[in-house]
Specification:
The structure is a single chain. This protein is α+β, with helices and mostly antiparallel strands. The protein has one domain: Jelly Rolls (Sandwich), CATH 2.60.120.10. Helix content is 22%, strand content 25%. The strands form two sheets. A six-stranded antiparallel β-sheet has the order 1-2-3-9-4-7, with no helix packed on it. It has a three-stranded antiparallel β-sheet with strand order 6-5-8, with no helix packed on it. A hairpin with a 4-residue loop joins strand 5 and strand 6. Helix 2 packs across helix 3 and helix 2 crosses helix 4. The longest helix has 15 residues. It is globular. The termini are far apart.
Length: 196
């Protein structure tokens, strides 16, 4: 099985080239640096969920495109626990683009979807060391284990097991792991069609 990070990079490069974009053009459209985009394409770095959403918006595809190896038959998909593929923590060349969590897509083959569910293990990191994410759409988070804090522009919400939060992801936000053990959450991200 191909490394997920490299698979995303290959799909990103192939799609960018098929749409006739240079690396610079796509990076500008997605709001990232060209060096960062090239690192993703080469499989040297892992995009955050927010960054992957910006790239997919710029290319006019759903975020799920990057996780699909095949399309689910009959529009029904089952992913067994041992079939989940992690996105590893990536090295960061750009300040603030570090991934402070490990994420697994829970629906890699469902076709043409605007929602993407993730199982996320959140690192314990100081809030000031995390850059806020901003991306179009909505996000829903359900805490499975541990404690997290959701940081918005003017507020902080602490959530424990069984708690959830649903928010407009176009406002600056970050998720912070609290305690000694990595919290585990279910996150469902909605990506609106480009131009809405």
């Amino acid at each position: 099985m191909e490394d997920v990070q490299l698979s995303i990079g290959n799909k990103l490069k192939d799609l960018r080239e098929s749409k006739g974009h240079t690396g610079y053009q796509l990076a500008q459209k997605a709001g990232i640096t060209e060096a960062r985009l090239m690192a993703y394409e080469a499989g040297y770095a892992t995009p955050t969920i927010a960054t992957l959403m910006k790239i997919s918006q710029a290319l006019g595809v759903g975020m799920g495109f990057f996780f699909q190896d095949e399309v689910a038959p009959n529009r029904v998909e089952v992913v067994r626990a041992d079939q989940r593929r992690p996105m590893q923590h990536g090295e960061s060349e750009d300040e603030g683009d570090e991934i402070y969590y490990k994420y697994y897509t829970l629906s890699p083959t469902f076709p043409d979807t605007r929602i993407q569910p993730f199982y996320i293990e959140v690192d314990i990191v100081k809030p000031e060391n995390i850059q806020p994410a901003v991306h179009p759409g909505e996000e829903f988070i359900f805490v499975l284990e541990g404690t997290i804090e959701w940081h918005g522009p003017d507020e902080v919400k602490r959530l424990g097991p069984g708690d959830s939060i649903h928010y407009d992801s176009s406002i600056a936000h970050k998720i912070v792991g609290i305690g000694e053990n990595k919290p585990k959450v279910l996150s469902v991200v909605y990506q609106p069609p480009e131009g809405t």
